[in-house]
Design goal:
The complex is a heterodimer. Chain A is mostly beta strands. Chain A has no helices and 10 strands. Classes of the chains: A mainly beta, B mainly beta.
């Protein structure tokens, strides 16, 4: 069964850091680019960051550039998102998603169930 | 990069057809044939319904179809069913700097 399972979310104060993880199973992880997509409560989807299969290409949305760092470990079938200098507007459900591609991919499938990040004092 | 524009809501009776528009610019929707559509039921993760403008993944009913004209993409649901009631989001590749932009989302209601 194809599965993505996110973890690491929680309540954090503004300005602090958090590291999200995404464990993949049921598919060949290094055949896929991987992405983080977030959804603020009651709002729409927003692409956050993506990484190619071999970590050779990395991209970020302007809203997180310079604060978030994406990485992956193909030996562990895992994706990560290091989030620093967190702000209230980073509060969201963070999904990891795969994109079958040697570069970025043109669509997102599969998706995890998400991990909730709440930034509040 | 601004979000792609979708109608806030559309509705139809069972068996009818509804179409959701997704309007962007020549830098995203109009510039690439990389538009995808996602269905999201409340409390659930998004599900891929259409990719590369008009292709359906295995397992997605052929009631769902996609198209594009200029800077506007569209998702049509034919023969609307109760289980189609959900939020729908379009997404487009937007080039090597911005990468991806999602639509504002459309709530489909089955009357």
């Amino acid at each position: 069964e194809v599965q993505l399972v996110e973890s690491g979310g929680g309540l954090v104060q503004p300005g602090r850091s958090l590291r999200l993880s995404c464990a993949a199973s049921g598919f060949t992880f290094d055949d896929y680019a991987m992405h983080w997509v977030r959804q603020a409560p009651g709002k729409g989807l927003e692409w956050v960051s993506g990484i190619s299969w071999n970590s050779g290409s990395i991209g970020y949305a302007d809203s997180v550039k310079g604060r978030f760092t994406i990485s992956r470990d193909n030996a562990k079938n895992s994706l990560y998102l290091q989030m620093n200098s967190l702000r209230a507007e980073d509060t969201a459900l963070y999904y990891c998603a795969g994109a079958y591609s040697s570069s970025w991919g043109n669509w997102f499938d599969p998706w995890g169930q998400g991990t909730l990040v709440t930034v509040s004092s | 990069q601004s979000a792609l524009t979708q109608p806030r809501s559309v509705s139809g009776s069972p068996g009818q057809s509804v179409t959701i528009s997704c309007t962007g610019t020549s830098s995203d929707v109009g510039g690439y044939n990389y538009v995808s559509w996602y269905q999201q039921h409340p409390g659930k993760a998004p599900k891929l319904m259409i990719y590369d403008v008009s292709k359906r993944p295995s397992g997605v009913p052929d009631r769902f179809s996609g198209s594009k004209s200029g800077n506007t993409a569209s998702l049509t649901i034919s023969g609307l069913q109760a289980e189609d009631e959900a939020d729908y989001y379009c997404c487009s590749y937007a080039g090597s700097y911005t990468l991806y932009v999602f639509g504002t989302g459309t709530k489909v209601t089955v009357l």
